[in-house]
Every structure is written in structure tokens, then in C-alpha cells.
Amino acid sequence: MLNTVAWFEVATDDPQGAEKFYGELFGWSFAADAESAKGGTDYRLIGYPGAEGFRGGLFATGGAFPGHAVFTVAVADVAATCERAERAGGEVVFKLLDNPTGPDFGYIRDISGNLFGVFAPRSER
After folding, report:
1. pLDDT at 124
2. Which of 14, 49, 59, 99 is 20 to 30 A from 30, alpha carbon to alpha carbon?
3. pTM for the whole thing?
4. Into how many domains does the chain fold?
5. Where does the UniProt annotation place the signal sequence (predicted)?
6. How far apart are CA 123 and CA 125, in angstroms?
7. Which residues fall within 8 angstroms of residue 61, CB to CB, at 6 or more apart?
């Protein structure tokens, strides 16, 4: 469903440490995302006990982005959503459109400075 929280992401420059931490703490499992790897990105899918499939991702930042843990909202159009966020007083921190190895996505700060993500599922592009 669009305009709902559909994913979560943990970003870190220590992906092995994060896997160990969250694996031990919550019993989460991790699997490399082959599509992201094709584009040179270390992105790992997160599964957790009782859930079907993957519900989140672990982004190995390589120090290029600050660490964060965010919720991500599925939207029909990332560019349009980013424009609406700016008109509403938010700040677009990053956006990737026409992503060849995954969904279009962006990071936005709300009016209080909180970071969250938006993405367009491939079926919506």
C-alpha cells in the first residue's frame, strides 16, 4: 500500500557489527541484496522471526552517509513526494531517481529535523 510505512533501514559504517548486534538482540537474519551488489552497493536484507520475507535493510555506508535507523514510506513518485516535502517545510537530504539496481528513493528531514525515507516500489515506476 502506498503512503504507509513499508520498510525500515539501518545504515552503518560497521555492517558486520550491526548484524551481530541486531542478530543477537532480536534474532534478525541478514542476506545480501544481489541487485544492489550489481551496482556496487553493500545492502543487506533483514528478516526477523515470524515475518514472511524481508522487512528491512542494512545499508553499509562506507562512511559516505551518517549512521541512522529510519522508517521508509512507499510512495508512487519519489520526485513529486520530495517536492511536496519541500513545500511543506521539509528538506530533501538525498534522492536517487531512475535507479537501475533498485527502487527510486530519497531521504527527507521533517520540520523537526527527523530523518525518514521514501521509496517507489518498482511496480509503481
Report:
1. 55
2. 99
3. 0.80
4. 1
5. none
6. 6
7. 11, 12, 13, 67
